Write a sequence for this structure.
């Protein structure tokens, strides 16, 4: 049996020490705004509609986005800590070296996004829409992704670790080489072709057998 191929190490956000960041509250963003080297905390951004926003080398801590849309946003070297991004529209976003730590992102829209060197850690991301996205060197770990939608997305150096994936959508998505074995689910929405080459546990094999109408004989 060949050894499991080790995934390339992700590049982490290159953010200056907090003492070098400009601390602020933020309650509004406008199209084409650019933020750099900021520490944004304890803020509510409400009913914000802005496109082509750029944020670099910044930490957002305990920031809530409510009824907002930021399509085409570009995030480079950014960390989100305990933020609420539920139902936020980030369609068409470009993310590079971004971390989401312990964030709430129910229904987050990342459709058509380009995502590189990004970690989602301990996030509540049920119903997240990550359709038609391009993900390279991306990890989801210890997240809840129930009924999330990754349909038609492209994965390279993509990892799922210890997530809850109940009824997540992976239709028309190539899962070859992706290890699902330590993730928890009682069913996925996926086609047989997408599963080809995917790594699963023995227990999960029974789930997929049931999904495709197979009978497993002990």
């Amino acid at each position: 049996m060949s050894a499991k191929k080790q995934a390339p190490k992700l590049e982490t956000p290159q953010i200056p020490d907090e003492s070098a960041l400009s601390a602020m509250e933020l309650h509004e963003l406008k199209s084409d705004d650019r933020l750099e080297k900021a520490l944004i905390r304890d803020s509510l951004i409400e009913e914000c509609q802005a496109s082509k926003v750029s944020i670099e080398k910044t930490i957002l801590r305990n920031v809530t986005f409510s009824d907002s849309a930021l399509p085409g946003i570009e995030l480079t070297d950014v960390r989100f800590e305990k933020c609420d991004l539920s139902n936020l529209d980030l369609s068409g976003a470009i993310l590079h070296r971004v971390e989401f730590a312990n964030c709430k992102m129910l229904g987050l829209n990342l459709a058509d996004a380009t995502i590189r060197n990004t970690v989602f850690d301990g996030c509540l991301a049920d119903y997240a829409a990550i359709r038609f996205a391009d993900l390279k060197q991306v990890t989801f770990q210890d997240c809840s992704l129930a009924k999330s939608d990754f349909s038609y997305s492209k994965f390279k150096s993509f990892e799922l670790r210890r997530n809850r994936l109940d009824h997540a959508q992976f239709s028309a998505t190539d899962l070859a080489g992706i290890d699902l074995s330590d993730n928890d689910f009682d069913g996925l929405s996926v086609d047989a072709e997408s599963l080809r080459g995917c790594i699963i546990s023995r227990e999960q094999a029974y789930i997929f057998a049931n999904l495709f109408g197979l009978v497993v004989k002990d």
Summary: The longest helix spans residues 202-211. The CA atoms of residues 132 and 148 lie 13 Å apart. The first strand starts at residue 22 and ends at 24.
